[in-house]
Design brief:
Distance between the termini: 55 Å
CATH topology of the largest domain: Rossmann fold
CATH architecture of the largest domain: 3-Layer(aba) Sandwich
Number of strands: 12
Structural class: alpha/beta
Strand order of the largest sheet: 2-1-3-4-5-6
Number of helices: 14
Largest sheet: 6 strands, parallel
Order of helices and strands: EHEHHEHEHEHEEHEHEHEHEHEHHH
Strand content: 5-15%
Radius of gyration: 21 Å
Number of domains: 2
Shape: globular
Length: 399
């Protein structure tokens, strides 16, 4: 049984070298972490990027570093300057300009300008290094104006906002990527990127008992395609539990709600311990992206609980599941192939949950991830912003 929430609201780099996460650096950094601006960094996390930033901040703080988090309003333990959701709005006179863009765009733009200005002034004497996880163009465009170096992690496929910033001379002193797949996508603009696979906390995601049926969890939106998981589970003769926030009401009403009942149950948006229990109780997790996932954090979270995964082979998911290389946490099938997913469900149910967790511990641990980021940040802070020209890490794409 999947536990219910009390609320029903609805690079080209090489593989990561294992790092002993128990070893702490003797140098204590002050790291300014720029998060995404769409949703707060707070439980229940709205998506994988928010979960990643929350885990990274907690991990760096646990290793003795001071972290200044700049993220959307409502984020936990963050600075007062926010990247979205602040109180600024255009004045009435400027609002009369017929060419004014959408106000939401202007407010987000202003928020990023405000944070970057604060880093150059208020925090100039405190920060050692910036870790940019924002999807906004300004941190790249203005990286050279900051008095300390910046590490930018590539979490998404190339977007025109970011590639435009790089083509126009924007930069970062170093880049990392969440998968080899994503690093290859960015190769025309980013000369090199250290690949650091996302990790999950084994203590937060313990070995679960299983036995509770199939589970799909994530944001209920077309690009995550839970309707394909519903079809695969039905074809395999299994009940499917769904967990996650409904962010596209029309999609939910047309593609998900008609299938709820005897064959499937939606449990709302779970977070924290409720979500962990749900994932640990599942017999298997289905991952059905309709786009190329840069990494696929839900697959890593499931594997850490010992829950095997069946996923479409999109983006970096094959790097998470590692099929055919000894340690497996499930199976990948051809993208959008519902019949292949249905056929793979029963075989993965025979995997030993302890083996699945052991595979996850070996290459999906948050400790190793945080330690690797710590190495990159320490290296940048030691070199100083003048030791490496930010533009040296950027290749302008051929026109």
């Amino acid at each position: 049984m999947i536990p219910r929430s009390p609320s029903r609201t609805t690079p080209l780099g090489a593989a990561v070298t294992p790092v002993r996460s128990s070893v702490r650096s003797s140098r204590r950094l002050t790291v300014a972490v720029l998060g995404p601006s769409r949703y707060p960094i707070a439980e229940p996390y709205s998506g994988g990027l928010e979960s990643f930033v929350g885990g990274l901040v907690d991990g760096l703080r646990a290793r003795g570093h001071r972290v200044l988090l700049f993220a959307a309003a409502g984020s936990d333990a963050a600075q007062p300057e926010v990247l979205a959701g602040g109180g600024w709005r255009p004045d009435e006179l400027s609002r009369q300009d017929a060419s004014m863009p959408a106000e939401a765009f202007l407010r987000e733009h202003h928020a990023h300008l405000n944070v970057l200005t604060a880093l150059r002034t208020t925090y100039a004497g405190e920060v050692d290094v910036v870790h940019n996880n924002s999807l906004h163009h300004l941190p790249l465009s203005l990286a050279d104006t900051l008095p300390f170096p910046t590490l930018t992690t590539l979490h998404t496929p190339p977007t025109p906002w970011l590639t435009s910033a790089l083509d126009a001379g924007g930069s970062s002193h170093a880049f990392s990527s969440v998968s080899r797949f994503t690093a290859r996508q960015w190769a025309p603009w980013v000369g090199s990127a250290d690949v650091v696979h996302n990790g999950v906390d084994p203590r937060r995601w313990p070995l679960g008992p299983g036995g509770g049926g199939l589970l799909w969890f994530g944001r209920i939106v077309p690009e995550k395609a839970p309707h394909l998981a519903l079809a695969a589970a039905a074809a395999a003769g299994h009940h499917l539990h769904l967990v996650g926030p409904v962010l596209d009401q029309r999609y939910f009403a047309e593609q998900v709600a008609p299938h709820l009942g005897a064959g499937a149950t939606w449990h709302g948006h779970l977070g924290g311990d409720d979500l962990v229990r749900a994932v640990g109780a599942a017999t298997a997790v289905l991952v059905t992206p309709a786009w190329d996932e840069p990494f696929g954090l839900v697959a890593a979270e499931a594997a850490m609980c010992g829950t095997p995964v069946v996923a479409f082979d999109r983006g970096g998911l094959s790097e998470v599941l590692r099929p055919g290389v000894g340690q497996q946490v499930g199976a990948v099938v051809a993208p959008d192939d519902v019949d292949a997913m249905a056929a793979a469900i029963d075989p993965v149910l025979t995997l030993d949950r302890r083996d699945v967790r052991a595979a996850a511990l070996s290459h999906l641990s948050s400790g190793a991830m945080v330690a690797r980021y710590e190495q990159l940040l320490l290296g940048l802070a030691s070199s100083g912003s003048s030791a490496l020209a930010a533009s040296d890490q950027v290749s302008v794409a051929a026109s």
